[in-house]
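If you are new to this repository, start here. Below is one unmodified record pulled from the training split, so you can see the exact layout before writing a loader.
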Amino acid sequence: MADRPLFIFAGGGTGGHLFPAVAVAEELSRLAPHVQVEFYVTDRPVDRQILDGRGWTTVPQSVRPFTLRPWRWPAFWLHWRRAVRQAAGRMKTRRPALVLGTGGFGAAPAIYAAHRMGITTALINPDAVPGRANRRLGSLVDAVFCQWEVSAKWFGHVPLVVATGCPIRRGFLEVDRSQACRAFHLDPDKRTLLVTGASQGARTVNQAMLEVLGDLAKQAHHWQVLHLSGPLDFQQVSESYKGRLDGAVVLPFTERMPDAIAAADLVVSRAGASTLAELTAVGRASVLFPYPFHRDMHQRANAEILAAGGAAVLLEDRIDPRANAEQLAPVLRDLMGYPERLARMAAAARKMGKPEASTTVAKHLLEMTQLA
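And here is the target side for that same chain:
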């Protein structure tokens, strides 16, 4: 076991930071079965939910996100030092061939420790505008793999910057729509509207959808709804659909996102980088409500790329359910009533997709470690 090359994937805290890493790890194991993969993750439950049962060693870290509140800095630094010592100690015991940061605060301790030890490092940056953690980690890595060309300007000092696309799991490319519909007990002969707020849900998107249920009911002869509400809003959302839109499927979460997107003809969603990579790889039209609370509004920058390419309609999340519904209702009426426009948007999305991104990144990692 010890003589197998070790690759450490560091990150987590959200599905958006873990699913691209899972995709690369799967491709790395497929291309080079002799390598070993470990995940350094956060202690958030979502990390266990995504990684449990996949067969990789996972190392929980006590790291916390940086805060601008000075009274919380002592706790932040305590957890930071502890996580860096933990990472460095494990790497001294067994030196990895490479450490790949998957984005966010969970990637920082391992990247920092590896950089100080002279270990090859790399970073996945799926957002158009890098977050604060990735911008800082950019000075410590040997390569950055971006989803879009526009991100390269943030990493001009990095030796290797490649617009590979955002890695997605191979399952997204292998799903049949009819089978995917049956997996959710949907009618394959009807079009499907998928509503999703990513792994934790999106309350303002949920609330906007509940405001437009009357409009959706008018489309019920031709359309059906698969609504992934997130765990916190599941009861309210599922109760609201009852008696108002028969045949709707409401779930708090699904691990079968490849099936969910394959079943969809139109998607209402946040604009997380991983979600957009999946939509473009499969080729699905979308209505995007970027998350409105980030300081850098990076989801809006992501959504603008798809909207400019004709693959999506971009709406502002105004927080208020009725204000959001006033925007959403006419867009849904237009798109759900005109299949030709949906087809054009889907084709535009597919043209933007880079479905082989996970393979591309895995090959770069093997080349960087001279294992190709």
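Two things worth knowing about this chain: The chain has 15 helices and 13 strands. The longest strand covers residues 36-41.
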